[in-house]
Write a structure and sequence with these properties.
single chain, Beta-galactosidase, Chain A, domain 5, 9-stranded antiparallel β-sheet, binds alpha-D-galactopyranose
Length: 389
């Protein structure tokens, strides 16, 4: 059923689906302010995987003309355009112009990450006395779901109704033992682009065997439209503690106060202020790539982070139900990737704010559990609000 909806979109080529309005996008642009534009979703073919599977690119546009392009492959946000303080629209996420770029090499640009966002030490964990072996794809550890994680599969996508704006539902069943994880895992991720310039990620999963799950979204932001690196962005993290890691970025198990360290973002400060490579407190890669322990009750939506870029005036707030946030300052970007519009992604050209449970939780008894049992429902929500300051 889902596939037939999906296929009919492909057959039709570029299809404009609208919420409460049938005007195509081009017409909306001409609408006057008295007649507020309606949010829309359009879709078009975006190439083929080596398996022959067709990839579709969806364009979500809200009532203010804020536009997110998202593809079925990896649930990847390929472009996200918002206005700066002068009303100029810029693309504020990193990525490639075409599917081929994502297939050749990608540091998880814009993708859904699963089954386990972040690292699992040595790719091993034990459930019910059985040790599971996962792919070891990152200096001796398992990272971001393995060699073919949720970022590298073609999802079933359909538009779902939303009172907030427009929404797309990404669905798939990750089969038992996929990438070494036990249990058939039914996963649904809903992306909602709100008319209040919010992007919401809502994740649900159920399993038929005891397993572990930790889903996140790996968009790289550059609020200055990739015109410079991200060191002048000001970040606030609502966290009094962070998780120190060893030289392979595996938590030591300690939760350490940020006070008096370069990890203190409790008051908004420029990313570049204390990031210097000489600073031995930062792990390999020379920069931030750590999980912060969010203050407040992780069950409620709470403010986790803010980011602000002074040249453009763009700002974003991140709210989540998750207990942690991985702040990654793009340390491994080194100028070898040429991204959209020929822009070379030099060192620290993008940052990620990956809401999640803590890294290596399956092996860390004191961390909040990432276990999921049959009959339980995994459900987390993260919301990003974009505005001008
Ligand atoms: C995550 C990790 C980083 C790095 C990037 C992708 O954020 O924490 O160490 O692997 O993904 O390059």
């Amino acid at each position: 059923m889902k596939n037939s909806i999906f296929n009919s979109l492909l057959v039709a080529g570029i299809v404009a689906m609208t919420v409460g309005c049938s005007a195509p996008k081009s017409q909306e642009k001409e609408e006057t302010t008295e007649e507020m534009a309606k949010a829309t979703i359009a879709s078009e073919p975006f190439g083929e995987l080596p398996t022959g599977e067709k990839v579709t690119l969806f364009t979500m546009t809200n009532a203010n003309g804020v536009e997110a392009k998202v593809m079925s492959y990896g649930g990847i946000i390929t472009s996200f355009k918002t206005p700066d303080k002068n009303g100029n629209m810029d693309d504020i996420v990193l990525g490639y112009d075409n599917l081929q770029g994502y297939l050749e090499t990608t540091p998880y640009f814009g993708a859904i990450i699963g089954r386990y966002g972040n690292r699992i030490a040595k790719g091993k964990f034990t459930i019910d006395g059985v040790e599971y072996d996962l792919a070891v794809n990152n200096i001796g550890n398992h990272l971001h779901g393995g060699l073919a994680g949720f970022d590298k599969v073609n999802w079933n996508v359909k538009e779902v109704p939303s009172e907030k704006g427009v929404a797309l539902e990404f669905k798939r069943t990750s089969p038992d033992m996929e990438e070494g994880y036990p249990g058939n895992l039914d996963v649904t991720v809903v992306y909602t682009l709100g008319d209040d310039n919010t992007l919401e990620f809502d994740y649900t999963a159920t399993t038929d065997k005891n397993t572990v799950v930790n889903l996140t979204q790996h968009s790289y932001f550059n609020l200055n439209g990739s015109k410079s690196d991200i060191l002048d962005h000001e970040i606030m993290l609502n966290a009094d503690q962070f998780i120190p890691v060893d030289e392979t970025l595996i938590p030591t198990g300690e939760l350490r106060p940020v006070a008096g360290t370069p990890f203190d973002f409790t008051q908004s400060k420029k990313i570049g202020v204390e990031i210097s490579a000489e600073n031995q407190q930062l792990a390999y890669g020379g920069g931030y790539d750590h999980c912060w322990v969010l203050n407040d009750d992780p069950k409620e939506m709470m403010l986790a982070a803010t980011a602000y870029e002074p040249n453009s005036g763009r700002a974003m707030d991140v709210y989540t139900t998750e207990p942690g946030i991985q702040f990654y300052s793009g340390n491994f970007l080194d100028g070898t990737i040429t991204g959209k519009n020929g822009v070379v992604y030099n060192h620290r050209y993008g940052f990620c704010l990956e809401t999640q449970h803590f890294p290596d939780s399956p092996n860390q008894e004191s961390f909040p559990t990432t276990n999921l049992a049959p009959g339980e429902t995994y459900h987390t929500t993260t919301l990003m609000k974009f505005y001008i300051k």
